[in-house]
Amino acid sequence: MHAQGEILVFVDADVMVSNETLQTIVEDFQKNPSISALFGSYDDAPAEGNFFSQYKNLLHHYVHQTSNSRAVTFWTGCGAVRAEIFRELHGFDARMSSIEDIEFGLRLTQSGHSILLDKNLHVKHLKYWTLRGIIKSDVCDRAAPWAQLILEKGEMPRDLNLNYRARISGAAILPLAGLGGVVPISAYLGKNLLMWIILGCLSGVLLLLALNQDIYRFFWKKRGAGFALAIIPVHWLYYLYSGLVWIYCCGRHYLKMAVNLPSPRENYFPSRPFPVQRRPKRLVN
Q: End-to-end distance of the chain based on CA atoms, in angstroms?
């Protein structure tokens, strides 16, 4: 690593910082000498105006703005870490193709270091999202590797998009989807069964709405009632495929344990330093 400064700042290539970004980071470290790292969030004015870009970026903004300021993970969309600590922990795990920042944050907090989520540190995301791109990113770059990391570490952080409401929503959407799939053929199963299926679907819908009412109020306030209503099925789709990915990863993980198959990441935290990931485009000194 060639950077010589005391603080390493990471910014994604599709993120635009403001004139105050670096000054805010420096002031955060000065005001909080006990923290080892910090990160911010996207702002509430995404650069792209299409529906899916607005939904995805605003959801990210909401999650970070409503999470605990004392974070347990790290985010390189706009984050900073003390260089000495970064080197001490050997930086990012270069074997990981995604969520290396999350893994580094977990390793950081488990080593006794503190991470600050500064809700006043905002950057603008320039990415253009489509539904296909959202699903691919959520499944391949987030849900699957994060589930694998959680299972191997044996710990699930109760923060960001893994808080209790999100977990219950992910669990509730699965039986709701199953009951919804039975509705078209329920007429052949008798009126009593049809009534119970409809009651189960309504209960599931009400539960999900209650659990996520703050999110939908946020979207209503930012983009209006029509937008808030339109994002509900997309948001529930997110819970559905995330829940299915979790089930799949759990099944694969425990099957490997049962048959004694070695995990490709069995020695996830090796005793020898692993190579530091070098990403010049994301590193600002």
A: 11
- The answer to whether residues 267 and 162 touch, using CB atoms and an 8 Å cutoff, is no
Per-residue confidence at 236, pLDDT binned at 50, 70, 90? very high
99-123 residue pLDDT tens: 888 889 988 998 899 999 999 999 9
Angle between helices 191-211 and 164-182 (to 10 degrees): 160
Burial 205-226 (b: 16+ CB within 10 A, else e): eeebeebbeebbebbeeebeee
What distance in Å separates the CA atoms of residue 212 and residue 62, rounded to the nearest whole number?
A: 12
Distance CA 2, CA 115 (A): 24
Residue 85 has pLDDT above 80, yes or no: yes
Cβ 54 vs Cβ 223: under 8 Å: yes
Token pair in block for residue 229? 């209503």
Bridge partners for 15 per DSSP: 125
pLDDT at 282 over 70: no
